[in-house]
Specification:
single chain; mainly alpha; 3 helices; elongated
């Protein structure tokens, strides 16, 4: 549950659209729900640990990409918020 809540919190940083015009935030939330539902019945401790480790790594990589994207937008003058304000993370 902790990882799932972290994914939902992190998804809020993905406020830009993908190539189909869909917000990445929505894609991430939907994908996380599907992944957790697909693995709901996994009971083997080793498998659960592997899923959690892989999920945490994927979340960290996604956050790093979001930070890089936000920095790009700020550098181009398209960042969110008033000029001179730091990004929300």
């Amino acid at each position: 549950m902790h990882l799932y809540r972290d994914v939902l919190r992190a998804a809020q940083f993905f406020q830009y659209p993908n190539e189909r015009g869909e917000l990445w935030r929505d894609v991430i939330v939907r994908s996380a729900r599907e992944e957790f539902e697909a693995n709901r019945r996994v009971a083997d401790a080793e498998s659960v640990t592997r899923l959690l480790v892989n999920g945490r790594e994927a979340l960290e990589q996604a956050i790093e990409r979001a930070i890089a994207r936000q920095r790009e937008l700020i550098a181009k003058g398209q960042g969110e918020g008033p000029p001179g304000q730091a990004p929300p993370f």
